[in-house]
Structure formats: structure tokens, C-alpha cells
Amino acid sequence: MENPKIKSLGYRLPGQIVLNSYFSISPEVIITERNIKASIKMVIVKWILIFTVVIAGWLPARSQPSDKIVINRDIQLIPLGDSLYIHETWDELEGYGRFSSNGLVLIKGGRALMVDTPMDNEKTRRLTSYITDSLKATVTKLIIGHFHDDCLGGLGYLQSIGVEAVAHSMTIRICQEQGLPIPQTPFSDALNFDFNGEEIECRYFGAGHSADNITVWLPGRKVLFGGCLIKSMDSTGLGNLSDAVVADWDTTVGKLLKQYSGIQTVVPGHGSAGGAELLPHTIQLVEKQRMK
Ligand SMILES: [Zn+2]
């Protein structure tokens, strides 16, 4: 996944500004054949210098190895700032191919909060052991975005090691009905808590990708985990609609836009993170879906 920080820095801009200033020749220059030749020579030398500087600055920015932590081929951590990571895990579904899913890992004072698990217990176990061994933190809490496998596929494993799982009461009810592992801490509407000094807000805005989908907001960082309710910018459709409530989806996202101001980063359930533009993009995709 492309690092949104690199994208937003716009490395080429300073180079372009410098280049533009060399297009103009000062009117005070007395034009003689010699002057013209000297000027042309100077301009050529300057252009070569500029190109060297610009290209030297541009290449490392473009080819800079990502700061992504590759745990293995299927599990990666993408840093999102101090002690906050996206956990990106890869799976293969018949007829769908290889795809990735996103969750969060927040490390505070030797403890880790996970938002959504990878799709299965084994990947969740591997991710957890990396957090323990390499990031020196114990996973103590899990927030579940909705009842699908890309949020709670590893819940069984995490509960077996004593992790507290938080979920919307509707998600818990669906888990009971479907014989899934059952998260133990319910909330309705919103749940705000302090995770070792970091404020966390879980909130239910309404139906969309599923009837029970919630979002997680980190106000100190202005990071919004939208989960499958929010689509990445390269998504051209809404994805799996098997449990979706398309009629409500755009209204739900509209409420999110109203609730949070100054959103810096939005993490969708699948695909690249971005900025607040993912929200109107999702609304557009919902409108497109309705016209079908
Ligand atoms: Zn889902």
C-alpha cells in the first residue's frame, strides 16, 4: 500500500517553482551576441544543475523503500504515526482472488489495542506474536467493527489468550444467532474510553456495509477507522453487498462527515488509507449503486 504521507508531501513542487523562475531573462541585460551566448550557456548549466537536484530529490522520494513492516507475505504493518499501525492482511477467496483487509494496532505503555482481527485465528496469532515479541506489547483489548470475518475472524484466538473484545450490542446479538465467538463488552450508540492515555471513540452512525457497522475515532490524531463502511479511493464499487443496507449507507456516512471535523486520515476496511475525501467518495459510490 502506498504511504499516504509520501503522496501528500508533493516532492516535485519545490523543483517546479525553481524551474519557473529561470524562464524569465532580466530586462536590464544588454543584448549583444556575446551576452546572448553567455546567457544561453549559463541557462544550460543552470538547467543541468536544476535537473540534477530535482531528479536527485525526486528519485529517492519515489523509490524510497516503504516503512511498511513485513511480518510475512500475508501480514504487514503500516505505520500511521507514533505507535499506531494499520494491520494489513492478505487472503484469497475463490472467484475473488487475492485481496487485503485493514485493521489498527495502537501500542501504549506496553499494551496493544487492536481494531478488527485478520480473517482467521492463525493470522491473528501470528500478528499477536509479532506485537508481543517485536513491539514488546501485550494485546489487551479488541474493538470489532461488525460481524464479518474480516473483523472478528481471529476473535476465538484472542479470547483464548484473555483479550477483552468490545462490540456494538447488535454485533453481539448477530454473533449469538450465528454461533460465532461472542464479544464480551457491549455498547450502543457510542463508547469513549481511555487506552493508557489515548482517547478512543467507538460510535454507531447507522447501517451501511452491514446493519451493525461501527467506526473508531482517535481524536488526538484525527484518525478515523471507517472499516467496510468506507471505501478506498481506488474502489469503483461498494464490494460485498450480501448484508448491506444501501438505502441507509450514504446517510450514515453523511452523519460521520458532520460529527468529525478536521479528519486527517481515514482507514477503510480494504485498500489504501487516505484523507477525508474517502467519505464523499463512498457517498458517490452508494449513489451510483442506487442508479443500477
Ligand atoms: Zn464486512
Q: What secondary-structure arrangement, pairings included, does this model have?
A:
Elements: H1 4-9, H2 12-21, H3 33-63, E1 69-72, E2 75-79, E3 84-93, E4 97-108, E5 111-115, H4 121-133, E6 138-143, H5 149-152, H6 155-160, E7 164-168, H7 169-178, E8 185-187, E9 190-195, E10 198-204, E11 214-218, E12 223-227, H8 246-259, E13 265-268, H9 278-291
Parallel strand pairs: 5-6, 6-7, 7-8, 12-13
Antiparallel strand pairs: 1-2, 2-3, 3-4, 4-5, 9-10, 10-11, 11-12
Helix pairs in contact: 2-3, 8-9
The protein binds zinc ion (ZN).
Zinc ion (ZN) binds next to loops.
User: Please, what is the oligomeric state?
Assistant: single chain
β-sheet strand percentage? 25-35%
Count of discrete alpha- or pi-helical segments spanning 4 or more residues: 9
How would the global form be characterised?
globular
Helical proportion?
25-40%
Instruction: Record the strand order, biggest sheet.
Output: 1-2-3-4-5-6-7-8
What's the name of the CATH homologous superfamily of the largest domain? Ribonuclease Z/Hydroxyacylglutathione hydrolase-like
Major sheet description: 8 strands, mixed
Give the class-level CATH name of the largest domain: Alpha Beta
The N- and C-terminal alpha carbons lie at a distance of 30 Å
CATH-derived architecture of the largest domain: 4-Layer Sandwich
Number of strands: 13
Average pLDDT figure: 85
Radius of gyration: 24 Å
Could you say what the CATH topology of the largest domain is called?
A: Metallo-beta-lactamase, Chain A
Stretches where pLDDT is under 50 for at least 5 consecutive residues are 1-31, 49-65
How many structural domains are formed by the residues? 2
Alpha-beta classification: alpha/beta
Bound molecules: zinc ion
Give helix and strand order, one letter per element, not per position: HHHEEEEEHEHHEHEEEEEHEH
